[in-house]
Amino acid sequence: MNIVVIGGGTGSTVVLEGLKKYRELHLSVIVGMMDDGGSNAVVRDELGLLPLSDVRKSILALSEDNESNYLRRLLTYRYSGCDNLNGHTLGNLLMIAMSDILGSEIEAIDTLSQMFGVRGSVIPVTLDDVRLVAEYDDGTKIVGEHYIDEPEKDINIVKFYLNGKAQAFPRAIQAIKEADYIILGPGDLYTTLLPNLLVDGIGKAMKKSHAKIVYISNLMTKIGQTRHKSVKDIVNIIEGYIGRNLDYVLLNSGRIPKEAFQRYIEDGENLIKDDIDESKGHTIIRKDLVANDDIKQEKGDILKRSFVRHDSRKVGKALYRIFTKSPLGRFFRNIFGQYID
Fold it and tell me: Which CATH class is domain 2-339?
């Protein structure tokens, strides 16, 4: 069974880590290439490479686990206290070196995937160097994923596009064509999910695909993106970019850890309002999906991160139940279920 995850951010890694234990699933992740914040700004502006952080995260998420976990710890190690390296991860530096050695970022991704025993495929959505552009209801315009992701005030996006033409990488289109299920989310609406749908060919391929599309809603609102928006609002926006209805909407019904929740409230955020029903043909599934442990900021990380996350095991289990409800899914479960890690 072919499963395609579209996004590439931290939310996508949660999904990949939750699903990779089901050995009968062939996993592919289509990774957004518009990030220009933190270490990616240096990678793009000074080295002329496409952003590497989400690619690195996806490779790690799909890699074979090892008992010591030293490789994972090394690749996620983030430098601090050094002006030239501050904010960079060792994994990003390794990818830069491999790209230089092989003369191609694609070859670097493929080689590192082999080195770390990746169970599936990591696919850039495009190889074109483009930036995100957002126009707001107050008349302002912002260029750059990093600035859109962290606006200085609460404003509403009314127009969203790329600053140039971006053609989908052929492997991404092929993965969508062959998919049985396509997973969107969790992830920031305008800086993780929709950027992939702006790339020429992606939305059209999804519209024509026979695959069922599953959307996993974020847990909390975010300034400049989903504050004051409900689940129904967000689903309508996503469907507008794809040109077809989502098949499944997966929502969290679990309790957010109190201390983490209070931090969001103090920042002006709240739970995304659950107001969606099955009137448009969506199958709505509500499960406890939240991680109960309190996630800390990484040492040396200069970007603002989410501290409330989905639990990979819970998400993987909920998705697998969706996959195995179909006749094809039950067949795979009965034949290959013994191979679950």
Answer: alpha beta
